[in-house]
């Protein structure tokens, strides 16, 4: 009996020592625990941040016309990094240029966004001169139409999506992208700091758009800023001729696209029945580079190899 008890103790002692030794060995070893690492590290390895349910979401096609200027890289950096926060997004960037520039191509390649890089030169007679006030001629028209052309060639009835025209100088909350995601035909919301008002936007009663809060050219069929609506991809594909009219009177560009697509009563009000501002028509002050010109004349200008 005593012998048996001693044996049991012995076995117990050996087994627990072995367990302890094994545990100590494991502690000393580098574990293969990538799955437990900080999610930030994980994100970098992917093409874009992971978002739940991305596969089943309609894709938001963000169409951005852009042109070369001293602050272009700053604007595109700001916008691209906002877009990184939005799942299932495809950025269609269209340069007003005779060909794609390296500056924009490099920025896109490093952006980790899904994108298409297009270009379309505005015909010289239509182009805004440096000395012209910026309202003289519509801007970005040919570029937005080029994006529409690309969508019609490369997307089909089976693709679920929504198209949003996002200029590179506005400010966007990620909320506005959540709002537009499930657009059936055309969704609308107010835009801050536009039209000489704190905001411009649809007036909503009983969940329907019944008019517009605007102070300028109130007779416009759709007095909505470019940043204040999104169109379903299906609707655009089923109206192959719908596009922006280059000859439209000032303020009528948005109407020229929307009028053939939708009636005011059919507009889908978003952003809590158009009571929330989640996009702002901000404008960047034109950078003053007078000193640069002076130094350049003395051969002492800023290093051209440093990209600004
Ligand atoms: C899109 O269409 C163009 C023709 O406009 C074609 O050259 C290109 O390969 C297509 N791209 C994709 C991604 O399907
Ligand atoms: C918008 O208004 C309608 C009608 O008053 C209401 O049924 C609906 O819940 C509102 N939607 C939101 C998001 O507040």
Automatic annotation (TrEMBL):
One of its GO terms (molecular function) is metal ion binding. One of its GO terms (cellular component) is Golgi membrane. The record marks 200, 291 as: Interaction with galactose moiety of substrate glycoprotein. Signal peptide: none annotated. Its cofactor is Mn(2+). Glycans are attached at residue 273. Mn(2+) binds at residue 169. It is a single-pass type II membrane protein. Its EC number is 2.4.1.135. The active site is at 254 (proton donor/acceptor). One of its GO terms (biological process) is chondroitin sulfate proteoglycan biosynthetic process. It holds the Pfam family Glyco_transf_43. Pathway: Protein modification; protein glycosylation. Coiled coil: none annotated. Homodimer; disulfide-linked. Interacts with PXYLP1; the interaction increases the 2-phosphoxylose phosphatase activity of PXYLP1 during completion of linkage region formation in a B3GAT3-mediated manner. Belongs to the glycosyltransferase 43 family. This is Galactosylgalactosylxylosylprotein 3-beta-glucuronosyltransferase.
């Amino acid at each position: 009996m005593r012998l048996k008890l001693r044996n049991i103790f012995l076995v117990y002692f050996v087994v627990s020592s072995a367990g302890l030794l094994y545990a100590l060995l494991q502690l000393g070893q580098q574990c293969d625990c990538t799955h437990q690492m900080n999610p930030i590290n994980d994100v970098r390895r992917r093409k874009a941040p992971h978002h739940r349910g991305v596969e089943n979401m309609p894709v938001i096609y963000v169409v951005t016309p852009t042109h070369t200027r001293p602050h272009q890289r700053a604007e595109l950096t700001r916008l691209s990094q906002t877009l990184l926060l939005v799942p299932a997004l495809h950025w269609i960037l269209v340069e007003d240029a005779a060909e794609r520039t390296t500056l924009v191509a490099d920025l896109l390649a490093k952006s980790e966004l899904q994108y298409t890089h297009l270009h379309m030169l505005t015909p010289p007679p239509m182009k805004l001169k440096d000395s012209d006030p910026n309202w003289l001629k519509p801007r970005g028209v040919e570029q937005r139409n080029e994006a529409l052309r690309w969508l019609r060639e490369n997307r089909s009835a089976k693709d679920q999506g929504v198209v949003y025209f996002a200029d590179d100088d506005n400010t966007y909350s990620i909320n506005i992208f959540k709002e537009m995601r499930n657009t059936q035909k055309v969704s609308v919301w107010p835009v801050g700091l536009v039209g000489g008002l704190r905001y411009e936007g649809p007036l909503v009663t009983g969940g329907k758009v019944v008019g517009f809060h605007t102070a300028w050219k109130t007779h416009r069929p759709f007095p909505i800023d470019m940043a204040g609506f999104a169109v379903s991809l299906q609707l655009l594909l089923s109206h192959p001729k719908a596009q922006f009219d280059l000859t439209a009177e000032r303020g009528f560009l948005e109407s020229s696209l929307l009028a053939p697509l939708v009636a005011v009563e059919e507009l889908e009000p978003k952003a809590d029945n158009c009571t929330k501002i989640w996009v702002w028509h901000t404008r960047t002050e034109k950078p003053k580079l007078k000193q640069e010109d002076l130094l350049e004349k003395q051969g002492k200008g800023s290093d051209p190899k440093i990209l600004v």
